[in-house]
Write a structure and sequence with these properties.
CATH architecture of the largest domain: 2-Layer Sandwich
Strand content: 25-35%
Distance between the termini: 100 Å
Number of strands: 15
Number of domains: 2
Radius of gyration: 25 Å
CATH superfamily of the largest domain: Fructose-1,6-Bisphosphatase, subunit A, domain 1
Helix content: 25-40%
CATH topology of the largest domain: Fructose-1,6-Bisphosphatase, Chain A, domain 1
CATH class of the largest domain: Alpha Beta
Strand order of the largest sheet: 4-3-5-6-7-8-9-10
Structural class: alpha+beta
Shape: globular
Length: about 325
């Protein structure tokens, strides 16, 4: 008697099919060929090779805590209370709330440290350590619904920045650095990747970031003369309105240089260290050493520094 079967006479399925190589393209990661059937949808998870100190961990946790409310407020930006500190210079309830969160988080673990914030002024501490904080760098972007703003936290010890964190809540990019230990970036796809400034030396190939003075700021004619000189000699100019992120992007090699006038300590404290630890150089537009809160700032790689100083100082 014949045994019933589900296979039809013309069914070509065979138990040996799985043993035969497939002709389908196989995804490859890296240089080595992969065995058939071992496709991967993306790169393997990267483990962190960087060791975070307790101080950096405290700073990162504080930034994440403040970012929660900023992300929520960004979705309801039209309902925020906004006041004007000066012509073209705004502060929102989101700025103030974020700074309070940062102050509380940082003081909880380091109560003896001083604190300098953009919105709440300065609190004296032990005279040796001081947090320098911008709770919302890029306020104008934030208030206009432009998703390009950041939290910036720097730690100053005896007049020198020794640790810095810059966090962009919308892109979820975390930039951080410690003096002598390098600069790093954490993204949703990679943790603690080492940052390096770009290697471009020719201004004609360089992408340069800047900050344009708004209403209420002086020196417009002087600035635009320098901007025109840079425009004529470089591959492109970018103005995104968040100085902390501009410096972080120089450290990451996204921008080759960045210059601006009239930046405050909280705008640049964390970013200065990121650039230096990524192999870059910080000075003013005349090539002299930069002092925190100085009138002008130029950040770049070493190969471009002299060319950028020449362009800016002669304009």
């Amino acid at each position: 008697m014949a045994v019933p079967t589900d296979r039809r006479p013309n069914d070509r399925t065979s138990d040996r099919t799985s043993d035969r190589p497939t002709d389908r393209p196989v995804a490859r990661v890296g240089r080595a060929p992969m065995a058939p059937g071992r496709e991967r949808s993306g790169p393997p998870e990267r483990r962190s090779l960087a060791v975070r100190s307790a101080t950096i961990t405290v700073m990162i946790r504080a930034a994440f805590a403040a970012a929660k409310n900023l992300k929520r407020d960004f979705g309801e930006v039209e309902q925020l209370q906004v006041s004007e500190k000066g012509p073209g210079d705004f502060v929102s309830h989101a700025d103030i709330k974020a700074e309070r969160t940062l102050r509380a988080e940082l003081s909880r673990t380091r109560p003896e440290y001083g604190f300098l914030g953009e919105e709440g002024g300065e609190t004296k501490g032990d005279g040796r350590n001081r947090w320098i904080v911008d709770p919302l760098d890029g306020t104008t972007n934030f208030l206009h619904g432009v998703p390009h703003f950041a939290i910036s936290i720097g730690l100053e010890r005896e007049g020198e920045i020794i640790a810095g964190v810059i966090y962009q809540p919308i892109s979820d990019e975390l930039f951080w650095a410690e003096k002598g230990n390098g600069a790093y970036i954490d993204t949703p796809n990679a943790r603690s990747r080492r940052l390096r400034v770009s290697g471009r030396k020719d201004p004609a190939r360089a992408l340069v970031a800047t900050g344009i003075p708004h209403i209420g700021k002086g020196g417009h004619a002087t600035y635009f003369a320098k901007l025109a000189a840079v425009t004529e000699r470089t591959a492109g100019i970018r103005r995104w309105g968040a100085g902390a992120l501009d410096l972080a992007f120089v450290a990451a090699g996204r921008y080759d240089a960045f210059f601006e006038f009239g930046l405050q300590p909280w705008d640049v404290a964390a970013g200065l260290l990121l650039v230096r630890e990524a192999g870059g150089v910080i000075g003013d537009i005349a090539g002299k050493p930069y002092e925190l809160g100085g009138p002008s700032l130029l950040a770049s790689n070493f190969g471009l520094r002299d060319s950028m100083v020449d362009i800016l100082s002669k304009a």
